[in-house]
Write a structure and sequence with these properties.
This protein is an all-alpha fold. It has one domain (2-135). It has helices spanning 2-21, 23-26, 32-35, 44-51, 54-74, 78-98, 102-112, 118-135. Helix 5 crosses helix 6 and helix 6 packs antiparallel against helix 7. The radius of gyration is 17 Å and the shape is globular. InterPro entries: Sporulation_signal_mat (IPR052964). It comes from Kitasatospora cheerisanensis KCTC 2395. Keywords: Membrane, Transmembrane, Transmembrane helix.
Length: 136
């Protein structure tokens, strides 16, 4: 678990710091481009809706950088960490739906689960085992 946690921290920190150095991330337009590429638009209407607003793409671009760079530091504060985990989960769900990358998103969501509070993990386990028992 410790190795997975260290790897997740390294992935987010490295990705965030590399993004800080990129000109598209600095000017706030990096999210705009994949939303308009044919390869990454399984839902063209939804991608066009989000990618059509400069303010939305600007906020998503900077929000991604801030979340990734801040993730290692957020681990020092339990409440901030939990808020950031929810934001990162929403980001990965959006990547799965908007960019058509469900396996990447599933991998990152499962790796992020290392940092989830125990109560949340127990609730997920109860929900999954309850549904499995009902389906039998």
């Amino acid at each position: 678990m410790l190795v997975i946690a260290a790897q997740v921290v390294l992935v987010y920190a490295a990705a965030g710091w590399y993004k800080v150095q990129g000109s598209r991330w600095q000017d706030g337009t990096a999210v705009h481009y994949p939303l308009h590429l044919g390869w990454f638009t399984p839902w063209p209407g939804l991608s066009a809706l989000l990618g059509g607003s400069l303010l939305v793409t600007f906020l998503l671009t900077y929000g991604t950088v801030i979340a990734q760079v801040g993730f290692p530091f957020a681990l020092l504060n339990r409440r901030l960490k939990n808020v950031l985990l929810v934001l990162m989960g929403a980001e990965h769900l959006a990547i799965a739906v908007l960019l058509g990358l469900p396996f990447f998103s599933l991998a990152m969501l499962s790796a992020d689960a290392v940092f989830w509070p125990t109560g949340a993990l127990v609730a997920v386990q109860r929900a999954l085992t309850g549904r499995r028992r009902k389906s039998r």
